[in-house]
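input
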Amino acid sequence: MKFIYAGKGTGRYWPKRQPENGLINWEKMTAKQVYDFTRALTKPYPGAFTFVNGKKLYIWKIRILEQKSSDLPGRIVRVKKNGVIISTCGKQVLLSDCQFKGLSRRESLKLLKERTGEYFKQKKTKLTYTKLKDFKIIFQKQGAYHVSPRGFKGWFLRDNYRAIAEECNPNDVVLDIGCGEGCLGEYLEVKKLIGVDYSQVALDLCQQLYPGVYDDLLLGDLRRLEALSLPKESFSLIICSLSLMYLIGSDLTKCLKQTYRLLKPKGYFVFTYPTVGPLRKGNEEAAELQPHVLQEEIKKAGFTIEKIKPIVPLISEETVKNSFFKGKAKKAFKQYLRTKKRMTLESSYHFLGKARK
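output
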């Protein structure tokens, strides 16, 4: 054997592979790449893994399907007898063997089947309020930023307000939780209207912009509605425009339970909420839930869901951009209306929910 000197600086080496190198990148990997990656790291090696609702899931066996993915990558599309179907960049894959830490493979697959519609995550993340929008700061810096909005923002806010107004009756005694600067109030014709918000700046703006629209304005946090000391069964209707998604976990549960307590028997809770699904992932600055998950949370509080209705269409990024340009806004609005006519819940941007006590 003859050795040949390669010279200084011409050699290459790779660092030792670590278990954390087994994270699956759903947003970039094709079905073939996910399959090869999983197969290369399966038993007796550490295993390829992903995260589901913050829990680490090891994937031991998948199979590529001929069906092309119509969903965003990493979505648990549907359940099969022998596993679950996952969307990737390209084709779908069938996951038939996996394991959560502390659970058997059989238990893990059963648990995963209950997560249909959710997404695998790239990393373990714990949602905290420091990661969400802080509306106290926003109102201090931007003032009444919901008033006279331009383009797509103006269109979807108007449709949100109108959709809620359609569910109100002239004899309703209404509590508006998360009222902000009060833009929704001017759309309502009700007997009595009380607004709640945790930003004093927003409440001050509401008094200045819409004097007399709200009968009373209360400084309060949706996470602690009980602190307002409002009497039980005080309202025939409680409304919430695009605010529930800023409540995390148990805080959402507490808010819904307090909402239920404050409603009169057979009273209604009407809310609007962003749609999360195959066509739109949730906003990173909010704790947005998929419609079926949110419905379950509302049912747990004691409500009966009577209506889930798409109200704002999901439009292309180009149409959104054009909506802010004077020369293109008219055409963009026509496209918005056309898309709105054929929208479904999955293809909507926002939806309205109505729940009865």
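quick obs: The chain has a mean pLDDT of 90.
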